[in-house]
Amino acid sequence: MYDHNQSPRISVFLTTLNSRLSHRRALDLTLGQPTIQKMFLGADGVSLKRGITTFDGLEAHTHRVMMRHSVEAYVVTDHSKLGRDSVFLIDELTSIAALATDSYPHADFRTMFANAGVSVI
């Protein structure tokens, strides 16, 4: 984890993921400590059926742990990931405050997000 403190009021934590599962316990201990005001995460799939998903199991676990310690979580993904499901579940749609994407979603996706209480940015 890298902490870059450019301002006394803002801290940025960047996580790097290692695919070795032996580091999972260390990740739990390290990431379980801070209170995160706003978390931004990427996703490989965002759907009503499965929620927020990714191809990497350790990444999904890391995001879940960080989300538990976040006041607000935001998913950042491109429009091609909407309506897709990936292999590992990160969390349900209702667990995020907003979705940021590169183009405004079609009406059916907007309804899906509105029903889950998720804003689209």
What does this structure look like?
With 121 residues, the protein is an alpha/beta fold. The protein has one domain. It is built from 3 helices and 9 strands; from the N terminus they run ββαβββαβββαβ. It has helices at 24-31, 57-68, 107-115, and strands at 2-7, 10-14, 36-42, 45-47, 51-54, 70-76, 88-91, 98-100, 119-120. The strands form 3 sheets. The protein has a 4-stranded parallel beta sheet with strand order 3-6-8-9, covered by helices on one side. Helix 1 (24-31) packs parallel to helix 2 (57-68). The longest helix has 12 residues, at 57-68. It is globular and about 40 Å long.
Note the main sheet: 4 strands, parallel
The ordered string of helix (H) and strand (E) elements is: EEHEEEHEEEHE
How many separate helices? 3
| Share of residues in helices | 10-25%
Record field, number of beta strands:
9
Measured by DSSP, the beta-strand proportion falls in 25-35%
Question: Overall mean pLDDT score?
Answer: 81
Structural class: alpha/beta
Query: Which runs of at least 5 residues are low in confidence (pLDDT < 50)?
Result: none
**Rg from alpha-carbon coordinates:** 15 Å
Number of domains: 1
Write out the strand line-up for the largest beta sheet, numbering strands in chain order.
Answer: 3-6-8-9
Shape annotation: globular
How far do the termini sit from each other? 28 Å
